[in-house]
Amino acid sequence: MKETRPSLPRTLAVVSQKGGSGKTTAAVNLAAALGERGRRVLVVDLDPQASASSWLGIRDGGRGLFDAFTGNGNLTDLVNVSDVPNVFVIPASSWLVGLEKALASEVGAETILRRLLERLPKEWDHVFLDCPPSLGVLTVNALAAVPGILVPVAAQYMALQGLAQLLETVEMVKERLNPGLRISGVLACRVDVRTNLSEDVVQELRKKFGPLVFRTVIRENVRTAEAPSFRKPVTLYDTRSAAAEDFRRLAAEDIENERRTKE
Domain spanning 10-262 has what CATH number? Predict the structure, then answer.
Protein backbone atom coordinates (compact mmCIF):
# COMPACT_ATOMS: atom_id res chain seq x y z
CA MET A 1 0.00 0.00 0.00
CA LYS A 2 1.52 3.32 -1.07
CA GLU A 3 1.09 6.33 1.16
CA THR A 4 1.42 10.04 0.48
CA ARG A 5 4.99 10.98 1.35
CA PRO A 6 5.69 13.75 3.86
CA SER A 7 7.62 16.80 2.67
CA LEU A 8 10.31 16.49 5.36
CA PRO A 9 11.75 13.46 7.15
CA ARG A 10 10.11 12.52 10.42
CA THR A 11 13.14 11.98 12.62
CA LEU A 12 12.79 10.02 15.86
CA ALA A 13 15.21 8.56 18.36
CA VAL A 14 14.17 5.07 19.43
CA VAL A 15 15.39 4.97 22.98
CA SER A 16 15.19 2.94 26.17
CA GLN A 17 17.53 2.72 29.14
CA LYS A 18 16.75 -0.93 29.72
CA GLY A 19 18.09 -3.73 27.57
CA GLY A 20 15.52 -6.23 26.31
CA SER A 21 12.83 -3.59 25.96
CA GLY A 22 12.27 -4.27 22.27
CA LYS A 23 14.07 -1.10 21.16
CA THR A 24 15.89 -2.52 18.12
CA THR A 25 12.97 -4.82 17.37
CA ALA A 26 10.72 -1.77 17.17
CA ALA A 27 13.14 0.27 15.03
CA VAL A 28 13.80 -2.47 12.47
CA ASN A 29 10.29 -3.85 12.14
CA LEU A 30 8.50 -0.51 12.12
CA ALA A 31 10.94 0.63 9.42
CA ALA A 32 10.12 -2.47 7.37
CA ALA A 33 6.37 -2.05 7.80
CA LEU A 34 6.58 1.60 6.75
CA GLY A 35 8.69 0.55 3.78
CA GLU A 36 5.90 -1.80 2.71
CA ARG A 37 3.64 1.22 2.55
CA GLY A 38 5.95 3.05 0.19
CA ARG A 39 7.73 5.16 2.80
CA ARG A 40 11.52 5.55 2.46
CA VAL A 41 13.13 4.90 5.84
CA LEU A 42 16.68 5.46 7.06
CA VAL A 43 17.79 3.56 10.18
CA VAL A 44 20.85 5.10 11.85
CA ASP A 45 22.35 2.46 14.13
CA LEU A 46 24.04 4.18 17.08
CA ASP A 47 24.43 1.07 19.22
CA PRO A 48 27.98 -0.38 19.29
CA GLN A 49 26.41 -3.85 19.38
CA ALA A 50 25.19 -3.12 15.83
CA SER A 51 22.10 -5.32 16.22
CA ALA A 52 19.95 -3.24 13.86
CA SER A 53 22.71 -3.24 11.23
CA SER A 54 23.08 -7.01 11.42
CA TRP A 55 19.33 -7.56 11.37
CA LEU A 56 19.09 -5.53 8.17
CA GLY A 57 21.92 -7.46 6.53
CA ILE A 58 24.91 -5.13 7.11
CA ARG A 59 27.64 -7.13 8.81
CA ASP A 60 30.20 -4.49 9.79
CA GLY A 61 30.02 -0.71 9.67
CA GLY A 62 33.75 -0.36 10.31
CA ARG A 63 35.05 3.06 11.34
CA GLY A 64 32.35 4.95 9.41
CA LEU A 65 30.23 6.42 12.19
CA PHE A 66 33.19 6.80 14.51
CA ASP A 67 35.00 8.88 11.88
CA ALA A 68 31.89 10.96 11.17
CA PHE A 69 31.62 11.88 14.86
CA THR A 70 35.31 12.71 15.13
CA GLY A 71 35.26 14.98 12.08
CA ASN A 72 36.67 12.71 9.40
CA GLY A 73 33.56 11.78 7.48
CA ASN A 74 29.88 12.46 6.78
CA LEU A 75 26.71 10.43 7.06
CA THR A 76 25.74 10.53 3.39
CA ASP A 77 28.71 8.35 2.41
CA LEU A 78 27.73 5.78 5.05
CA VAL A 79 24.23 5.00 3.77
CA ASN A 80 23.76 1.35 2.80
CA VAL A 81 20.85 -0.13 0.87
CA SER A 82 19.32 -2.98 2.86
CA ASP A 83 17.55 -6.04 1.46
CA VAL A 84 14.29 -4.68 2.84
CA PRO A 85 12.24 -2.64 0.36
CA ASN A 86 12.61 1.14 0.92
CA VAL A 87 14.80 0.69 4.03
CA PHE A 88 18.34 2.12 4.20
CA VAL A 89 20.93 1.79 6.97
CA ILE A 90 23.84 3.75 8.41
CA PRO A 91 25.54 0.86 10.22
CA ALA A 92 27.24 0.80 13.59
CA SER A 93 30.23 -1.21 14.76
CA SER A 94 32.26 -1.87 17.90
CA TRP A 95 34.39 1.17 17.03
CA LEU A 96 31.68 3.28 18.68
CA VAL A 97 32.69 1.89 22.09
CA GLY A 98 35.66 4.26 22.03
CA LEU A 99 33.68 7.35 21.07
CA GLU A 100 33.15 8.59 24.63
CA LYS A 101 36.90 8.79 25.21
CA ALA A 102 37.58 10.24 21.76
CA LEU A 103 35.16 13.12 22.33
CA ALA A 104 36.01 13.77 25.98
CA SER A 105 37.70 17.12 25.25
CA GLU A 106 35.54 18.08 22.25
CA VAL A 107 33.62 21.33 22.68
CA GLY A 108 29.97 20.85 21.73
CA ALA A 109 30.31 17.06 21.57
CA GLU A 110 26.64 16.61 22.51
CA THR A 111 25.42 18.28 19.30
CA ILE A 112 27.71 16.65 16.70
CA LEU A 113 24.96 14.33 15.46
CA ARG A 114 22.53 17.23 15.03
CA ARG A 115 24.99 18.90 12.67
CA LEU A 116 25.63 15.68 10.77
CA LEU A 117 21.92 15.01 10.29
CA GLU A 118 21.30 18.55 9.06
CA ARG A 119 23.68 17.87 6.17
CA LEU A 120 21.92 14.68 5.08
CA PRO A 121 19.91 14.96 1.84
CA LYS A 122 16.15 15.00 2.40
CA GLU A 123 15.66 11.68 0.60
CA TRP A 124 13.86 9.83 3.37
CA ASP A 125 10.39 10.08 4.84
CA HIS A 126 11.41 8.67 8.22
CA VAL A 127 14.75 8.61 10.02
CA PHE A 128 15.03 6.33 13.07
CA LEU A 129 18.02 6.57 15.40
CA ASP A 130 18.46 3.25 17.19
CA CYS A 131 20.17 4.29 20.44
CA PRO A 132 22.29 2.27 22.87
CA PRO A 133 20.57 1.18 26.11
CA SER A 134 22.66 3.65 28.11
CA LEU A 135 23.02 7.39 28.70
CA GLY A 136 26.42 7.95 27.12
CA VAL A 137 27.48 10.43 24.47
CA LEU A 138 25.67 8.60 21.65
CA THR A 139 22.25 8.65 23.32
CA VAL A 140 22.64 12.28 24.41
CA ASN A 141 23.62 13.19 20.84
CA ALA A 142 20.49 11.49 19.55
CA LEU A 143 18.23 13.26 22.05
CA ALA A 144 19.84 16.60 21.20
CA ALA A 145 19.32 16.03 17.47
CA VAL A 146 15.66 15.05 17.13
CA PRO A 147 12.26 16.64 17.68
CA GLY A 148 10.78 13.49 19.15
CA ILE A 149 11.46 10.10 20.68
CA LEU A 150 9.79 6.73 20.39
CA VAL A 151 9.97 4.80 23.66
CA PRO A 152 9.46 1.02 23.54
CA VAL A 153 8.58 -0.39 26.95
CA ALA A 154 8.52 -4.11 27.70
CA ALA A 155 5.39 -5.14 29.57
CA GLN A 156 7.34 -5.79 32.78
CA TYR A 157 7.44 -3.78 36.00
CA MET A 158 11.22 -3.37 35.93
CA ALA A 159 10.84 -1.62 32.57
CA LEU A 160 8.65 1.02 34.23
CA GLN A 161 11.52 1.88 36.58
CA GLY A 162 13.87 2.32 33.61
CA LEU A 163 11.28 4.55 31.98
CA ALA A 164 11.30 6.90 34.97
CA GLN A 165 15.07 7.32 34.61
CA LEU A 166 14.71 8.00 30.89
CA LEU A 167 12.15 10.74 31.53
CA GLU A 168 14.62 12.48 33.84
CA THR A 169 17.22 12.39 31.08
CA VAL A 170 14.75 13.76 28.53
CA GLU A 171 13.98 16.70 30.81
CA MET A 172 17.68 17.39 31.30
CA VAL A 173 18.33 17.39 27.53
CA LYS A 174 15.29 19.63 26.95
CA GLU A 175 16.61 22.14 29.44
CA ARG A 176 20.22 22.19 28.26
CA LEU A 177 20.33 21.19 24.59
CA ASN A 178 17.01 20.72 22.84
CA PRO A 179 14.00 22.69 24.12
CA GLY A 180 11.72 21.21 21.44
CA LEU A 181 12.32 17.59 22.41
CA ARG A 182 9.17 15.63 23.18
CA ILE A 183 7.89 12.10 23.50
CA SER A 184 6.22 11.24 20.20
CA GLY A 185 5.04 7.81 21.19
CA VAL A 186 5.22 5.11 23.85
CA LEU A 187 5.03 1.55 22.55
CA ALA A 188 4.12 -1.42 24.75
CA CYS A 189 6.28 -4.36 23.61
CA ARG A 190 6.67 -8.01 24.54
CA VAL A 191 3.07 -8.07 25.70
CA ASP A 192 1.99 -11.53 26.84
CA VAL A 193 -1.77 -11.44 26.38
CA ARG A 194 -2.14 -14.52 28.59
CA THR A 195 -0.99 -12.75 31.76
CA ASN A 196 -2.50 -10.12 34.01
CA LEU A 197 0.97 -8.64 34.54
CA SER A 198 1.28 -7.50 30.92
CA GLU A 199 -2.20 -6.01 30.99
CA ASP A 200 -1.44 -4.17 34.23
CA VAL A 201 1.74 -2.64 32.80
CA VAL A 202 -0.03 -1.53 29.62
CA GLN A 203 -2.79 0.06 31.65
CA GLU A 204 -0.23 1.83 33.84
CA LEU A 205 1.39 3.26 30.70
CA ARG A 206 -1.96 4.48 29.39
CA LYS A 207 -2.77 6.05 32.73
CA LYS A 208 0.56 7.92 32.83
CA PHE A 209 0.98 8.90 29.18
CA GLY A 210 -2.57 8.90 27.83
CA PRO A 211 -2.79 9.33 24.04
CA LEU A 212 0.99 9.16 23.66
CA VAL A 213 0.70 5.39 24.10
CA PHE A 214 0.04 3.63 20.81
CA ARG A 215 -3.24 1.75 20.62
CA THR A 216 -1.23 -1.02 18.97
CA VAL A 217 0.76 -3.29 21.27
CA ILE A 218 3.50 -5.64 20.13
CA ARG A 219 2.66 -9.10 21.37
CA GLU A 220 5.29 -11.56 22.54
CA ASN A 221 5.90 -13.84 19.58
CA VAL A 222 8.56 -16.43 18.80
CA ARG A 223 8.73 -15.27 15.17
CA THR A 224 10.06 -11.89 16.29
CA ALA A 225 12.83 -13.61 18.25
CA GLU A 226 13.73 -15.86 15.31
CA ALA A 227 13.79 -13.17 12.62
CA PRO A 228 17.19 -11.54 13.42
CA SER A 229 19.11 -14.78 12.86
CA PHE A 230 17.69 -14.85 9.32
CA ARG A 231 18.57 -11.15 8.81
CA LYS A 232 14.99 -10.32 7.94
CA PRO A 233 12.35 -8.18 9.64
CA VAL A 234 9.42 -10.23 10.82
CA THR A 235 7.25 -8.80 8.03
CA LEU A 236 9.47 -10.69 5.56
CA TYR A 237 10.49 -13.63 7.74
CA ASP A 238 6.91 -14.71 8.45
CA THR A 239 4.67 -12.32 6.62
CA ARG A 240 1.43 -13.79 8.02
CA SER A 241 2.50 -14.02 11.65
CA ALA A 242 0.81 -12.17 14.49
CA ALA A 243 4.05 -10.18 14.95
CA ALA A 244 4.00 -9.00 11.32
CA GLU A 245 0.36 -8.02 11.79
CA ASP A 246 1.25 -5.99 14.90
CA PHE A 247 3.98 -4.00 13.14
CA ARG A 248 1.83 -3.33 10.10
CA ARG A 249 -0.89 -2.02 12.40
CA LEU A 250 1.71 0.10 14.20
CA ALA A 251 2.93 1.59 10.90
CA ALA A 252 -0.63 2.52 9.94
CA GLU A 253 -1.20 4.13 13.34
CA ASP A 254 2.09 6.02 13.17
CA ILE A 255 1.14 7.49 9.78
CA GLU A 256 -2.29 8.38 11.14
CA ASN A 257 -0.69 10.17 14.09
CA GLU A 258 1.67 12.02 11.77
CA ARG A 259 -1.24 13.31 9.72
CA ARG A 260 -3.18 14.34 12.80
CA THR A 261 -0.29 16.45 14.11
CA LYS A 262 -0.19 18.37 10.81
CA GLU A 263 -3.91 19.22 10.84
Answer: 3.40.50.300
